[in-house]
Each structure stands twice: as structure tokens, then as C-alpha cells.
Amino acid sequence: MPHGCRYETPPTAIKLLLGFWATSDEYLINGFSAALRVSGPTMRGDSSRIKSSTARIKATEESPKSTSQTIFERDASPNARFFQGGTLDLHPESGLAALKKAGLYDAAHEHLRYDGEEMFITDKNNTVLTHMQDLDKTSGDSEYARPEIDREDLKGLLLKSINPESIHWGKTLQSVGPSAGILTFRDGPTAGPFDLVVGADGAWSKVRDVLTDVRPCYSGICGFESTIPTSHEQYPKISKIVGRGSYLVSSDHVNLTVQRMANESLKVGIWIAGNETYPADLMAAYGSDEAKLKDKVIENYIGWASDILRCIRASTNFRPWPLYELPVGNTWDHRNGFTLIGDAASLMTPFAGEGVNKAMADSLELAEALEQASHSGQDMDEGVRQYETNMFPRAKRYQTLTQRNKVAMFSENGAVNLMVGMVDLIAEELGFNIDKGCLAWIPVRSVMFCWLSFWQKLGIWRRKARELFSSQS
Fold it and tell me: Where do the record's region annotations for Disordered lie (predicted)?
């Protein structure tokens, strides 16, 4: 097996890891496999595989001649998948930081939608409990700006920055040799050995099998993804309630999300706390008749305002989607030659918007750890070990937040409980602990709950008045 080399990480290594992510989907079962072969006189051989949720490190002609990178992707081509994913909000400390370090921020800027930060959170009566909007954040100057970008646009941007010869399309990873980094694919051929095999293969990672026996479990949440193709022209009322960004409704243990895409279409998420096979069973029974399928889906939203149900009625191209997760705080014993990023490392549900940003941060931190090890003359494996040491507690924080949001959103009074939970999140971001000091004497959560509950009661009467007016007109 060839040995390691001294190499420069930014922006080359960061681009490589971001590129690993670009070809896969964070929440879809994916056969993606990436590997890094390194040769040179100074460092011991190592293997690792990395997955990221929003960005990837790319291999370009800038890479040192002693380093070669290979990406293996299940899809036959960049556009082979019909469902290319929705829109992503990039956070300044993770997703945006990775793009900047990779030298891709300027190219990405034309795709970033700062008005996409607008968000409505409502209950089943379409009572708006919060409307997040800051029209001044159009240039990205704010340190808190979290612009939206379509996954497809980000993927295209990253793929353009990678040497196309480094990507092998149509390669479904079947197994990984635990000792020599040999990759076996479903179509027969093998590849390797590799000094570094980075597991960027998502929920059902084959590389994870080398590191741990832990497998994803069903999260208790399932549903459908669908699309409203032309919201402005055909559905002006839906377009109005969604605004420029996102519309989130939670009540009665179910949830509905609508996100505006760059082309003005709307991506709809229909989420239910229910049986794992429910979406697939419904598709098997009614998939050939979309009208009947919608009727069955709407049975989960009995008593909801007609404005909300209109989003389901207007949807098309339903895709069943059970959600899976790894245990909070999942780790593994370090093993020379292998590592994981993104969903492969710490699979989460999408209810905190952290998955893709966590994955981009994984890519960035792994690249920087490898660079630091190289510059200090250490074995490359020490860089991988340092990355894992730093990544585990960070992943646990994201997983904990995601679980907290999931529990709140799928409770009886989901929208209110989600908003009350945001009190803790905002306090944490500002560096306060509302359970200590003078703040402990102020019942912040209770005050928030009472105010939102009062606002909900008013919303019920508003809805009744609207429906009465509509019936008489």
C-alpha cells in the first residue's frame, strides 16, 4: 500500500470533501462511496471515507501530484435522480464557512437566497405564531444570515469544481474490506487498496459497518415529499401564505412544511407520527390514483384549516419517505484507515435543519485536521483521530437539538411547544442560561406558553369568522 504525503488542504482538500457530498443526498439511501489514495515518503498509509450534508471537498488539478482522489457514486449521472432534493439553509459557522474555505463562496453567491430566510410557524387553524423576516439581510452582511440554496444548485456548483475524471458514476458500494480498504461494488469489480476511505454513503453506510455494529432505527416519523410546480399562477393563496421562504404547521402529532425553491415551485413535506410502512402501503394501494392518495393523506389532517389542506390538494409527484436516525451521541472506536462524515456518521431527521450544515462542517474540519497533521509532520491517521474527537461532541449537540424539535413538533400542540423550545435555543446562542442566576426567577417558558396559547384561542375565533364569511359570500 502506498504511503502518505505532505499536501495542502485549503482549498483543495476542502473542495474534495465537499465534492464527496455533492453527488449524494443526505436523507436518501445512497450507494455513494469515496476514497482517497495518497502516495509519498513522509506519512503512514491511512484510509477514510467522508460524507457531508451540504458541501463537499473537491479534487482539482491544484491537488499535489503525490495525492490522488477517487469518488464512487451510485447514480449513473449527475441528473439521473428524479428527486434532486429541496432547499437548504446554510449556516455561517458551518455551511457558509466551508464554501468560503474552499474558495467557492463567490460562485455560490448568485444561488444564495437571503429572502428565503422568511418563515411562518402556524398551528392547524393557520394561526401565525411567529413570522421570521429580515429584509435587510439581502447581502449576507449579517453574522446571523442563513441563506437558502437549492440542493441541486449546490450540487452542480460543487461538481463543476471537481476534476470530472475523479468521479466514477454508476458504482453501488456493496462492501468494504476492513483491513486494506478494498471497495467491492455490486457490478463485480473492486477498487483499492486506499490509504484513506471516507464514509460519505449516508444512512445505510457500508463504510460504517467497518467501524461499528450500530445501525439506524426508525425515527417514528414518516410521510411524503411532493411538489407544487407553479405556485404563483395557479395557487396565489398558497404562494401568499408561504411567502419567500418556508411555511411550517404543527398540530395533532402531524406536521406540514412548504418551502419555496429558486424556480418558484414549492416543495411540500407531509410528516406523520406513525407506522414505518404507512407511506409505502398507501402508495401501493392508491399510488396509481393521485386524487385518492391525497384523500387518504388528508385523513391525517382532520379539522385543519382549508388554507393548509389546499397545499396537499395542489401537490403532485408524491414520494413515500420514512425517516431514520442513529442514537444521540453515537460514536465508534477509531480505526486506522476509515472515518465517516455527515449522515454516515450521525444520521438525524431534518427537523432542526442541521444535517447538511453538520456534514459541511465535518468536511471542513476533517480537511483542516489532515492539513494540520501534515504540516506538523504527524501521521495522517492522527489528523483523522483529531477530527473524530472534535466531531463527536458537535454531532451530539446537533442530534440533541434535532430530537428536541422532533418531540415538540409532533406533540398535540406542536407549534406552541416548538416555539417554547426556541426560548432555550435563543438563550444558548446568546450565551445565557435561563435556569440560573436572576433569569431563574423569571418563568420565561411559562410566559411564552401562556402568550402563545392565548394567541391560539384568538386564532380559533378568527378561523370561525373567516369560514362563516366564506359560507355567506
Answer: 43-76
